């Protein structure tokens, strides 16, 4: 059965994305050459430019893919629980644990803010995961589990703390770092709880 042009284009795009992701995670944005990505993917440099216009275009697409996958990983961890408080804890823990993934660490946390610029990176983060965090916090406030307060600054504070902790974990050689960070996370989150009535 003959492969259609659309299937061939999709396969080329997937191969470029997979090789780009592997190289961006291993070598960082500045260590990657688009022509070498194309060659390793078994396609021409022209095909790479056709699909992504530039190395920055490929990187932007890889960042979006990693962001989406991370958001799905966090949501799946949260969805394993029925209790809204446990959903928040599980989602935050899944995000922290994801920092050990080279793609998340190098692509998403280290290179994306500088390569794409803070505003674009934040917009992508907002779309993929910060929005879910805000929704979880809104639900907890509405249920009276977290003291009534504006959710947007709380979301940004927690998101910033999580990003910083994930970066620290990714660079830490300590075998106790994740457990210690999860303990600190629980203390911080418990400080948000509304006083018992």
- The average pLDDT is 91
SS element count, helices: 9
Helix/sheet category? mainly alpha
Helix amount:
over 70%
Using only C-alpha atoms, the radius of gyration works out to 19 Å
Characterize the overall form.
Answer: elongated
Which percent band covers the strand fraction?
A: under 5%
Largest sheet: none
Distance between the termini: 69 Å
A few lines on this structure:
Residues 10-70 form the HTH tetR-type domain. The protein is mainly alpha-helical and 197 residues long.
Fold blueprint:
Blueprint: H1 5-27, H2 34-41, H3 45-52, H4 55-79, H5 84-98, H6 102-116, H7 118-142, H8 151-171, H9 177-190
Helix pairs in contact: 1-2, 1-4, 1-6, 3-4, 4-5, 4-6, 4-7, 5-7, 5-8, 5-9, 6-7, 6-8, 7-8
How would you describe what is shown here?
This protein is mainly alpha-helical and 197 residues long. The protein contains 9 helices and no strands. It has helices spanning 5-27, 34-41, 45-52, 55-79, 84-98, 102-116, 118-142, 151-171, 177-190. Helix 6 (102-116) crosses helix 7 (118-142). The protein is elongated, with a radius of gyration of 19 Å. The mean pLDDT is 91.
Could you name the key traits of this structure?
197 residues; mainly alpha; 9 helices; HTH_TetR; TetR/AcrR family transcriptional regulator; transcription; DNA-binding
